[in-house]
């Protein structure tokens, strides 16, 4: 090295916008920004100059500076995915397929609550009153429950797939405060007339946890058919109440994730819906990996 000016290069994680490319054009000066240690995630890197060199005179300088690149040795961070949609839009069905392929930790607020109800805990008893009415269970029950599951080691290491959460601005605000920001927010779009039929025909296998529909996704064998159960809130009357709750909260929640929302047509057959989600997640992973690769090069 001819010159010994020493600069450190730090890596920050601007939030991923699925509608914009992740990397800067090659001929563009990389932005100089403040290093944020709490965001050592991905994908663009920025320069943090230890010398008294402003962005302006850095550009004007005729002397090519030499950079000391501090290699992080980090591997691409796992995916952090939120999936949302009206009741019976297919969130759980897609989560089964996504976790199978991407090995993410599936965290479903509804499942966590049903587990509390089944265990007969105080929280479960209280939650059931709201679930029966198709209303949101109060934050003091849900927020810490989800936060704790997100904080567990497997969620941190494998990445997470958050299903049916957040459903209100207060839940989204709490998640942001705890530092849980998604790479992507998938919204399944299905019109209401289809949703009621899906709810009424839904059945669950208590042994495998698999979701069926008597018409669209019938059980494979007589043995499975005989043991299927129905959720206590899967009636036409209750799903209409759940839809009202969903409709009154959805826009406010979407507005908090508008940079990372991807809308997917949930009326297609389930494998086609998955194929679209699969493409989106594969591309996102590739971008994460190539951004990291270009740093290492
Ligand atoms: P939750 O359990 O989350 O229920 P939900 O949001 O109403 O969603 P569902 O589980 O009913 O539907 P889904 O989108 O997963 O559809 P699925 O894949 O099963 O919440 C229940 C309650 O808990 C709430 O009402 C609330 O009280 C409480 N709660 C939950 N989260 C909360 C929170 N964050 N804060 C406060 N309270 C909360 O599919 C449905 C059916 O359609 C199945 O039979 C399936 O086989 C079929 N199907 C799926 N995809 C397709 C397809 N592409 N084509 C044809 N059929 C399909």
From TrEMBL:
GO molecular function, one term: ATP binding
EC numbers, comma separated: 2.7.4.3
CDD domains in UniProt: ADK
Catalytic activity of the protein: AMP + ATP = 2 ADP
GO cellular component terms attached to this protein's record: chloroplast
Cellular compartment(s): Plastid, Chloroplast
PROSITE patterns: ADENYLATE_KINASE (PS00113)
UniProt similarity note: Belongs to the adenylate kinase family.
Name of the protein: adenylate kinase
Organism: Sesamum angustifolium
């Amino acid at each position: 090295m001819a010159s010994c000016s020493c600069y450190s290069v730090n890596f920050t994680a601007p939030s991923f916008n699925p509608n914009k490319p992740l990397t800067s054009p090659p001929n563009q000066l990389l932005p100089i920004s403040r290093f944020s240690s709490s965001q050592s995630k991905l994908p663009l890197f920025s320069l943090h100059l230890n010398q008294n060199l402003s962005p302006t005179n850095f550009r004007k300088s005729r002397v090519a500076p030499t950079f000391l690149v501090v290699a992080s040795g980090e591997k691409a961070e796992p995916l952090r995915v939120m999936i949302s949609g009206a009741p019976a839009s297919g969130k759980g069905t897609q989560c089964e397929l996504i976790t199978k392929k991407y090995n993410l930790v599936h965290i479903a607020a509804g499942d966590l609550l049903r587990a509390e109800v089944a265990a007969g805990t105080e929280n479960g008893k209280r939650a059931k009153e709201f679930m029966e009415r198709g209303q949101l269970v109060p934050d003091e029950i849900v927020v810490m429950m989800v936060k704790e599951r997100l904080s567990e080691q497997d969620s941190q290491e494998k990445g997470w797939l958050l299903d049916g959460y957040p459903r209100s601005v207060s839940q989204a605000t709490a998640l942001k405060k705890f530092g849980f920001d998604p790479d992507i927010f998938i919204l399944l779009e299905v019109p209401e007339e289809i949703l009621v039929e899906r709810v009424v025909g839904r059945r669950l296998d208590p042994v495998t946890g698999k979701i069926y529909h008597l018409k669209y996704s019938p059980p494979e064998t007589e043995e499975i058919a005989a043991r299927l159960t129905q959720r206590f809130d899967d009636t036409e009357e209750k799903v209409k109440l759940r839809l009202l709750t969903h409709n009154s909260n959805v826009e406010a929640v979407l507005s908090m994730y508008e940079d990372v929302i991807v809308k997917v047509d949930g009326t297609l057959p389930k494998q086609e819906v998955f194929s679209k989600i699969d493409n989106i997640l594969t591309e996102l992973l590739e971008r994460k990996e190539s951004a990291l690769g270009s740093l290492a090069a």
